[in-house]
Amino acid sequence: MSENGSLTRHQRQARIAEIKDLALAHLTSPRKDFRPYDLQDELDELAPGKPNKRPAEALEAQILIVVGAGRKPRRAQKALYHLFRSRLASGELEKYQAIEAVLKEAERNGTSLEGLYFPQAFGSLDHSEIWTKVEDMMTKIEDLGGEVFLCCGTLLGAIRDKSLIEHDDDVDLAYVLDAGTPEEAAKQWMEVYEYLRSHDLLQETGPNPCSYKLKSGTEYNIDLFPAWVSDGKVHVYPYVWGELDEADVFPLRPCPTTNLPIPNDAEAMLAVSYGEGWRVPDPGFSTAWGRLNRRFAPFRDALN
Predict the structure, then answer these.
(1) Residues with Cβ < 8 Å from 248, sequence gap 6 or more?
(2) What is the pTM assigned to this prediction?
(3) Fewest Cβ atoms nearer than 10 Å: which of 56, 120, 266, 270?
(4) Strand partners, 106
(5) Low-confidence stretches of the chain (pLDDT beneath 70)
């Protein structure tokens, strides 16, 4: 067992903070004795697991190590995104902005950040430009042959707030598969993946095969989710598993806020997705992924 294996939680946190400070010091004033690979190995031991499971301090240390070591900045992208989401969720966006400022200052001093983009909440962006970009992406996806509509948090913002939700940072779209069973939907969803990949529209699939992140060249993500109708009942990952009739969703209609396609009865979909109280913002809302994924098990299992 290594020395770190016997550390208390407090000692681990303190050492992670020390590693972060070492990486920050090197980034601002390079040192010959900086050993990024050793520090990264130690950090991996102190805070094991995927980036979305690591504490914010460990994510900051990882980002600074990658950039300070002169490695491809793109290798820090996932950590940067999860840091942004973590700080946003805890109401500490200013701490994320502090790391962003450090990186941008390093770039001004000659450090390359090529391939690294900084996630931004919609509150700081031009919404009209976002809707134009989303419309363009929807048109490209519709070339597959299916319809696309706003869903999840994007639909919630468009209907409830008449805008994108200010603290959100991704656009949610649903693609309608021509499938009558979860198994048929899974087969077509994999064909969608191949289409997006071959047309250079796929950024990544991430750990969840039920959603695709689209390559939009923007500061925000555009996520694509599957939808299909089975025996007159609508399924839209991750919230709707047959609670809506086909007539609740189709035909799609123009959104009064964006003019982009939305479900025929958008309010019915929002009530299923977020509960009857969806009209009142809930700062403490969190997606119950475990429960939702269990409901979509027939579809998820067919993807494997």
Answers:
(1) 234, 263, 264, 265, 268, 269
(2) 0.74
(3) 120
(4) none
(5) 1-5, 204-206, 283-284
